[in-house]
Design a protein that fits this description.
By secondary structure, the protein is mainly β. The protein contains one helix and twelve strands, in the order E-E-E-E-E-E-E-E-E-E-E-E-H. The strands form three sheets. Strands 1-2-5-10-9 form a five-stranded antiparallel beta sheet, with no helix packed on it. Strands 3-4-11-7-8 form a five-stranded antiparallel beta sheet, with no helix packed on it. The longest helix has 21 residues, at about 120-140.
Length: about 150
């Protein structure tokens, strides 16, 4: 199946998924954790397979090599527990991961190194002001006469 994720000002993007032992209810972007929050209904133990598009979410080291995602699962008692995942496909476009869950689990968080929208409006305004200030200071320091 395909789930359409709302990426705010960046529009939407699709995530291919399959789930056994439960139902996928929602996928939200959480910019604070650089990841996705996936709500599930898990009446039984099962697994969730996701094709994560690198353009929208990924986990990379500074040298561009793949880093592991941090996966947290919310248990019945409300505790968030870190779990492992299996990565079956990794190419320039997607990373396919499989996450196992248990009966009663309600949420899965996938934390990477970036998620779209990566920059909010305020950050973009601050960045623009910083660039303009740099240009002005440079212009005044190195006067170019024509």
């Amino acid at each position: 199946d395909i789930f359409e994720v709302d990426a705010g000002n960046s529009g939407t993007f699709d995530i291919l998924f399959s789930i056994r032992g439960g139902t996928l209810l929602d996928i939200l972007i959480d910019e604070n954790i650089f990841g996705l929050v996936i709500d599930i209904d898990a009446p039984d133990e099962g697994k969730l397979v996701l094709d994560l598009p690198r353009k929208y979410i990924d986990a990379e080291k500074q040298n561009g090599k793949d880093e592991v995602f941090i996966i947290l699962v919310e248990k019945q008692n409300g505790d968030l527990v870190e779990t492992t995942y299996q990565e079956t496909i990794s190419n320039s476009d997607i990373r396919t991961i499989t996450i196992n869950f248990e009966e009663g689990d309600s949420q899965i968080q996938i934390i990477g190194t970036y998620v779209i929208p990566e920059f909010g409006t305020i950050v973009m305004i601050i960045l623009t002001i910083g660039i303009m200030a740099s240009i002005l200071f440079t212009k005044n320091k190195f006067q170019i006469k024509i």
